[in-house]
Amino acid sequence: MIKIYAPASIANVGVGFDILGAAIIPINGTLLGDCVTVKLSKKFELINKGVFSNKLPTNKEHNIVWKCWFKFCQAVKKNIPISILLEKNMPIGSGLGSSACSIVATLVAINYVFNNPLSSKELLLLMGEIEGEISGSVHYDNVAPSYLGGLQLILEDSDIISHSLPNFKNWFWVIAWPGIKVSTAEARKILPKKYKKDVCIKNSRYLAGFIHASYTQQSHLAARCMQDFIAEPYRSKLLPNFINTKEKMKEIGAISCGISGSGPTIFAISDNIKIAEKISLWLKNNYLQNETGFVHICYIDLKGVRKIG
Ligand code: HSE
């Protein structure tokens, strides 16, 4: 038997639509992600637990975990009976890589129980494929950080799918999930099919600037480069009062603020804990729409997926 934890993540990181993703962990040490326990069994069995398990589909075959098991069996060309316990701690459609947490934890747990028949590259490819089936197109910017940890640059090169970037150790990432759902598939559908040349150039310039600033550890340049011309202009309407909230974040002292993944989670960055605490308090009082919403001050989680039992 094995218990695996996979952390939540912030996809896009403002400037890297489908290209950048960061795994996160609250600074108070609590875990923010899904857990999956797998053990050998006579027949396939799936048990759902956790705060958000009541939001999972009732039909077992529509559960991501089932899909992971099914795809894994196809990949290794064997039908493997196992018992899986999913602790669904992440809200679905939150913009925090909830589906990625379940996919990563499940595939790593199953692979471990069967003595790792799939390599880490094969696993990551399978994670991307399953994420793609759920959201409408393959994107690795949640599964890669959740699996590998840290800040990931998605290369999708023939050899390397994802590469770690240096991150800023003094950055506090305040995240606020307002307690409402945004479907990633829907949030992808509302984006334009084509972008104008000047938008593409500007986006390349800021993304290149961010990567340069990361390698040269110029944190304020990196923060200034975190601007989203691809998704935010179209998705901001899906978030509660996003434009004013973003202005308020800057006013309090955030060095950057944006949409986490496809939203509705918002993230704001500060290198000062006092400012991060002020941001956190303001978001708690003003951004949350109901009692299920939450705010956390986080670090980048460098470990990624891990065995916790
Ligand atoms: N890059 C993806 C998107 C992440 O923004 O659609 C989804 O969580």
Molecular structure report:
The chain has 2 domains: 2-166 and 303-307, Ribosomal Protein S5, domain 2 (2-Layer Sandwich), CATH 3.30.230.10; 172-299, Alpha-Beta Plaits (2-Layer Sandwich). Helix content is 36%, strand content 22%. The chain is built from 10 helices and 13 strands. It has helices spanning 64-76, 98-113, 120-135, 143-148, 184-189, 197-215, 219-225, 232-235, 242-252, 273-286, and strands spanning 2-7, 9-11, 20-26, 33-40, 45-49, 82-87, 151-154, 162-165, 172-177, 256-259, 266-270, 294-300, 306-307. The strands form 2 sheets. Strands 2, 3, 7, 8, 9, 10, 11 and 12 form an 8-stranded antiparallel sheet that branches. Strands 5-6-4-1-13 form a 5-stranded mixed sheet. Helix 1 (64-76) packs across helix 3 (120-135). The longest helix has 19 residues, at 197-215. It is globular, with a radius of gyration of 19 Å. L-homoserine is lined by residues 11-12, 17-18, 95, 139, 141-142, 184, 187-188, 231, 261-262.
